[in-house]
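Dear Dr. V.,

Thank you for agreeing to look over these. As mentioned in my earlier message, I'm a first-year student in the group and I'm still getting used to reading structure tokens, so any feedback on how I've presented them would be very welcome. I ran two proteins. I've put each sequence directly above its structure. The first is here:
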Amino acid sequence: MKNKLFLLLLAGMALTTSCNKFLEEEPRSNLSLEQYYANDGQAMATVNSLYRRGAPSRYSVAASAYVGPTASINTMLTGYFINTYEGQEQICLFARQLTRQQNTSVVSSTMNTIWDESYKAINIANAGVKYIPGINMDESRKKTLLAETKFFRAYNYFYLVKTFGAIPLSVKPNETLADELYLDRTDVAKVYELIETDLKDAVADLPAATFAARGHRIGKYVAAMTLASVYLQQGKYADAAAAAKIVINSPHKMTANVDLQFNSAYNKLRTTDDLEEVIYAQEYDATINNSGWWTTYAFSSSATSVFDKYSIFERIYGPTNQFLNAYNTKDLRIQPNQFFHYKYTNPVNGKTWTSDVPGIWYYFDEQAATVTGRGTKDWNFYRFPEALLIAAEGIAKSTGVSAEAAGYLAQVKARANTEGKTVATWTTELQALSADDFVKECWRERLREFPLEFKMWDDILRTKMFPVISTTEAGKIDFVPLVGAKNASGATFKESDLLWPISPDEIQRNNKLTQNPGYQ
């Protein structure tokens, strides 16, 4: 690990008053880690800093007009999504072409950022685990803060282990030059052991309230959803189903369609924060922390002639026509102005954007694009359909296809159906499938439901199966072994494509680190 860990900028964050929903940033001065956890207020402020640093920002921060959040680049490996500015943002090009091995130096700056920011968050969390128990404060509040700290340590390690494989595992904060800064890579299974332990503690100790009800703080259901994802990633299916069912039995529920147009569930998800469907989200606000370039990702570059609130529009994460064929023609998600769109008229000036290739309607914040230039829509990390699909797959893999498993999958399929097919009808049909076919149907629904939230590569990585989307038959998706398969750009997957390279800068700093196989 980097020798600057002990010099972390511990950017504290303090809760604002009741008129503001945000965890507002408030930078602190040169204090030691122990001093940062000296009392209730300091502990709260430092734990708050974890909400906006490290792994969560890999999914939610749209800091550039030309390349999306780091997690979006993983999907480029499939060839089903492309960045039209990949000539400049070459990490996207080399991911799509599966040539990262020959271009390690080009992608290393991104790898540095992932590594640095995640380990900074982990170091803060490690200090919290060490010092919070000794603070003189209300015991219930202490237990909750400690559980939040463990959640973020686990969340950051989860992102790192999926990205790099075996990584250095540290549970003690680096506070002085005397601390051990250079650690060996730890076996993946050992990393997952810590992740599971932290998340199980968080599930046990956090309040049983939704993220919105807790004032946008981590609660039991966020921790349970993350634990379910962690179990699923490892193939621990029964455990994954059990954790997912904690969420399913919570106050969370699916957003309903009012109609199949602009009042659909998918449009509500696009425009409305704090829906009961949303389990965990990143907050955005026009004053404290707006959503950056998110809304510009909804269009192609020609949109600059239609809007005047943003100087750049770019299709930094655009689906190929082959990917769009993942949906059958009766699927609501593929209809115009649900997930994707081809035409928009600005109501302020009457100018119209049209495109032969789809923009991503799901990212569009109309108020930001037409009036304010500052996006406020929160970014959703986890939604209720994911709990349903994890439980469905977990049950089918561990005990077989049951009415319960079929019912969970049926809820996701019924909402996306435009012909009025009920959950009961879907349940009956799905229950007749073999376990293998049922599980693949879960994979298909995950592909269709979450393509814009950067979960596709995680599923491919855990199953070691690549989804082959038909170019001729809408809705047809087959699966083939990942290694040896061709992605949608015609590149062949190698074993070394399963992980990203550790940055050469990190290896130079820490000679105990070794590079992932296949990379320069």
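The second protein is here, in the same arrangement:
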Amino acid sequence: MLDTVGARVMALIVATTLPLAIIASMLAWHSYQQNVGNSALRTERDTQLAISEITTDLDQTHTLLDMLADGDISSGNALREFALVQMVSQHHYCLLMLTDAEGRPSVVLPSPSTQDPAICHSPENASPSMMSASARLPVAGIDVLKGARGPLLKFVVPILSNNSVSGYIVAIRTLGWQQNHLRKGDSRLLLGTETNSRHFLAMPDGSLYSLFPDRPVSVNLPPKAMARLQRDITAQSQHDVFTNQGITYAFQNAYGPVSLIVATERTAEESHALNIFLIRVSLIVGLLVLELLGVALGASIFLVDPLEKLALAVADWRRGALFAPRNNHSIPLEIRHLEKAFLRATRRLTQHEKALEQSARNQDMLIREIHHRVKNNLQVVASLLNLQASRIRSHEAREEFRLVRDRVRALATLHRYLYSENGLSALDVQSFLEELCSILLSANSMNAQTRIRLRLDIEHVLISPDQAVPIALIVTEVLSNALRYAFPGERAGHIVIALHKVVPPDPDKEGLVELKLGDDGIGIDAGQASESRTRREGIGMQLIRGFARQINADMTVSNENGTWYTLRFIPERPSLTALAMAREAINHDEDSVR
């Protein structure tokens, strides 16, 4: 990613400016958090005010009911006392009832007519859950009932007379307050008005009700907020504050299993703080982007473009053109010095390459001349042997001279093929063997129309000079022996020379080649030919075995339908000529420069 000069310059600029941008962003975030924190503070403050009002109201209820129980309350004055309590509590009670010691109602003060009946409706009002299972007596204490508009509190206060219970006072009231019963100026009327908050009471089953039962509202909270509140209710959490979708929620235990939830929306100032934060961050990012663009443009004009022109000049030079940098005094001094250094280096390198290639070409010509002279000398030797053989009267001696002549001619023919035009010092077996066999047939007064016919089935295979000499002499020996001994008299037949690439059973022998030579003549004793070298053999067989070992070939001899030699070997990798090595060295140096 940082391979180019432009990318590295950009990385340096980012590395130097990014810390400043991060510090500025952190300061903007801190300022935003301070404004956002105001919402949480307002919500918690409003929650504590509501909890304080609930606690104070419940304390007053306890005090009033205890005063009634400790006073001289009876069936005669109970209605008057209950009415006084209802008036003092601003008609807060749904029910005030006096019972006897057995729990039977004697005086009942129902809810006032100005109160919505739905507020006090609860299927648990007549439930015996507050009674003991045996005597069906009221159980002193406080129970939370689920009403249609919210939670209800059921108070049971015993009346003691002479250390015995003479009756009970039963009171049912709402946990919240009815706004239409509160006096003007009551602080409870101000809950949520200044902070734009909503107050809810939550039951253990997750039901949400308005804190003011005479002002019911539909509770439609976001799913994430509702899920977290449900988790707080299930875990019986005492306190929790969080923000979701711009609304701050405060969760606080109100009384017993009932919890208070206050939801506060952002004020205009807090929303403006968020916009200010976004504007600051956008400004920081914009300035950073503009700075990077400016630096990128300047670096491209004064640094990257001169380097690219220098790279193009080097690329043109590698393709064969002269290295000609476009000098410009507006580019940095270091790049101008680099161009001059490249210019001097390319000139010297070009001179060295030309000298190396010329030296390799001279060496190539020298090697060609050596092969040519060796071939000519061997042909002279073959001619001398042939001339000398013609003067010998002994048939066996003359044949031996001719065998030596054939071997020398094979080597002479080989030297004409050893130097290839494709840059490899290798031998194309197909064309070489075709010419060699033609020369051997002509030397033995044979041709394609004679009784002995030659069949060649040879693939194009390149072999090294070290293997070419043994193969040429093996073919010469086999072909000469077949022409001399395989077809006596006027016997006709065929001589076959085949060379193919085979699929080896062993993966380590990849590139295996099979050379098969033989004839369908009278054959030799194959068993004798396959015995150990310690047995006396003819010189031809000894030569064939020795040449087979030189090329690391596995040789088998068969005497079925004639004599057949099968050699399997792996051709050595051809080496490069001097000129090819020089060119490869030059190309390697150019690739390393890349």
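From my reading of the second output: The chain has a mean pLDDT of 79. The longest helix spans residues 5-70. Does that match how you would interpret it?

Kind regards,
E.
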